[in-house]
Specification:
- It is built from five helices and five strands.
- It is α/β, with parallel strands linked by helices.
- A five-stranded parallel beta sheet has the order 2-1-3-4-5, sandwiched between helices.
Length: 158
Amino acid sequence: NMGEHARILVIDDDESIRKTLATILEEKGYLVDTAENGEEAIRKSNVKFYNLALIDIRLPDMEGTKLLTAMKEATPKMVKIIITGYPSLQNAIEAVNKGADAYILKPFNMDSVLNTIKEHLKKQQQAKKYGEEKVAEFIETRVREIEEEKTISRKRMG
């Protein structure tokens, strides 16, 4: 199952939102950590790899978009989803420009939140698989080339 064991970091200064999201996500088999501000989020993501972060656009110590940029540099492969209660076009555009993969609106429609998360984790998984296949392919090709080079030099020697 996709959801199993993917790590999610929920970043929101509202405790009830953190608890609600964590409870629902854990029920779905995700491993969840929470942070109440940008600083805590950065500290946690430096220690652990998270597949996905839900980032509130308004945090007490920094703008969610600023945190987004910081996390994008630190863990580019992590899926970053902005949580906003103010779906102005400006917000949405800024979030996407700063590297958000998606954004979800408050008040939450939980089905839609879960679908967004699932969809992005699936993409992440596919990209990882694609990356691993490319590496394997590169190694195979390289091994073959080395073998051929050996054969050629052996022929020269003989």
